[in-house]
What we know:
- 55% of the residues lie in helices and 6% in strands.
- With 506 residues, it is mainly α.
- The protein folds into two domains: 2-193, Fumarase C, Chain B, domain 1, CATH 1.10.275; 202-497, Fumarase C, Chain A, domain 2.
- It has a three-stranded antiparallel sheet. Strands 1-2 form a two-stranded parallel sheet.
- A hairpin with a 4-residue loop joins strand 8 and strand 9.
- It is elongated.
- 53% of the residues are buried.
Amino acid sequence: MRCIPGELTLAELRSLWAGETSFELDASAWEVIDRAARTVAELADRDDPAYGINTGFGRLASTKIPRDQLELLQRNLILSHAVGVGDPLDPPTVRLVLALKVASLARGASGVRRELVEALLALLEHDVLPIIPEKGSVGASGDLAPLAHVGALLMGVGDALVAGARVPAIDALAEAGLAPLSFAPKEGLALINGTQVSTAIALAGLFALERTLAAAVVAGALAVDAAAGSMVPFDARIHALRGHPTQADVAAALTTLLAGSGIVQSHQDCGKVQDPYSLRCQPQVLGAVLDLVRMQAAVLEREANGVTDNPLVFVETGEVLSGGNFHAEPVAFAADVLAIGAAEIGGLAERQLALLIDHSLSGLPPFLVREGGVNSGFMIAQVTAAALASENKTLAHPASVDSLPTSANQEDHVSMATFAARKLHEVVANTQTVVAITLLAAVQGVELRRPLRSSDRLEQVIALVREYVPHYDLDHYLAPDIARATELVRAGAIAEHAPLRILEQR
């Protein structure tokens, strides 16, 4: 993958998250990087104070640092800020962090030397990943604590993941063909300022949500057939009158999935007028989720290409300007909105599941098992789905509405973007399980209508599910079935069957 700074696409970032390890910087970027580095070096040689170059940081910005202590200034900055706690970020997210930091520094507004950018690229090339604790950032003044752990690795401090094993930083650098770096003026600050961690976590949540939404459309179509529901609510004319393109997109996907279903044909004259909302309002609910996914994806793509450290170097005039691009409010809002969407997917899927196990609504055997009484079927699987859907209601409360001042009130309003992005992952993970349980129930329901068959598309999904999970004849240890179905949702195997493009041209 060749990165042109400022032009990264979500498709490229998604590929990196999914396992692509090739990441090169376009040759045109190096001269821009060199020019900015020369500008910083010139400013460092002057007596005039320049924030982050020859001064302290935050509330200590007015403290002038002697020239012979500028390297120590940057080293101490990294060491004192490497205070992350909690579990390490997963490897795909760390790869995104490194790629986003390279893309930002390569815009030529950070003033770092090419040696620093080359070192980050070497980490990516050799898949040497810094151990970045997930907690410790409030999403303003950059993701200081987590990004400091990247800087610490480059200095030979801390640990890294190499071929799945945790090794000391010195050994990890050797694997990447690197020696410990000493940071030039502003380089430590440029590394830890920026929204790359919160953005990377949010992007990973977005990519997981894309798969989950697509899988929910597939499971929802199967639920319609399992409950002998109507296709009329998906008629394109209904959605054209409302005018929301995403609503029409979901309706079209459901229509395509159900086209040719023998179950649909079997009850054309049943006399039922309307289905419950969880079936007939899928385009309205999932379409609204699709709408916000597309909007927030655009926000995160812009953020991924932005320069978010401070201060910023403008080589044309030789100025270094202090601002607040490190404030991650756009990322916080995006992650919070995506979490709300994810919770709604799970809420809708849980209601479909509840409908299917209820004989009075679905017309299927109670709890989707033929010999009820001695067998409980999907009774308690629905309780698990309800528990997760309910948990999501609390998790969907926005983190971005909170702020706790830091740095002696210099940083008096923060975004909480990193927590918002981490929380998004919890909501998506819960929703993946709810969708998976609903998928199992819907497949079971369709099979209980044999010899009738669903559409060719949905029968392919049923066959896929049955490769991993058997038909539910008798009560058995059900947790492994749910785990396997959840993995199908998480890995995108179900999403591949959805005739729905989540992100247009992205």
